[in-house]
């Protein structure tokens, strides 16, 4: 199986808030894939952290087109469903393996470095709208009657 390289696998997205949340989630996943326990407590903590993070991203998604937003939300829902399945497995007393945790880690790194980077870039571009250019300076050069007629 493909193993996520330890340490700096996340590319900074450009959003401090999102990157901080990614770092906290990666810490939880790193502990699991480095031989730590992968039990109900760890999976429940991961589930909570991931759900809060996805809510942060959902708030940013208004800048995306409807189909891109739905694709991103769909990916989030699938990931949460995967964590929920592991929570259920652990809750029934069955083992969750380090391979399961490794798959959670791989998805998280790939998603963060692709879909989330796209989201942050879209939000940044939305903030880069050109400034409004006022007509007033142009109208000031006209006769008073024309200026008053044209200024609305
Ligand atoms: Fe994310
Ligand atoms: Fe995301």
CATH topology: Four Helix Bundle (Hemerythrin (Met), subunit A)
**Attached small molecules:** fe (ii) ion
Q: Roughly how many Å apart are the termini?
A: 67 Å
Q: What structural class do helix, strand and pairing data support? A: mainly alpha
Counted by DSSP, the helix tally is 6
Shape summary: elongated
Give an account of the 3D structure.
- It contains 6 helices and no strands.
- It is an all-alpha fold and 152 residues long.
- Helix 1 (16-33) packs antiparallel against helix 4 and helix 2 runs antiparallel to helix 3.
- The radius of gyration is 24 Å and the shape is elongated.
- It has helices at residues 16-33, 40-60, 66-91, 98-127, 136-140, 144-150.
- The protein has a single domain, classed as Four Helix Bundle (Hemerythrin (Met), subunit A), CATH 1.20.120.
- The longest helix has 30 residues, at 98-127.
- Bound molecules: fe (ii) ion (2 copies).
- One fe (ii) ion binds next to helix 3 and helix 4.
In short:
GO terms for molecular function: metal ion binding. The protein has 152 residues and is mainly α.
Characteristic terms for this protein:
Four Helix Bundle (Hemerythrin (Met), subunit A), Hemerythrin-like domain-containing protein, mainly alpha, binds fe (ii) ion, 70% helix, 152 residues
SSE layout:
Elements: H1 16-33, H2 40-60, H3 66-91, H4 98-127, H5 136-140, H6 144-150
Helix pairs in contact: 1-2, 1-4, 2-3, 3-4
One fe (ii) ion is lined by residues 18, 22, 53, 57, 112, 116.
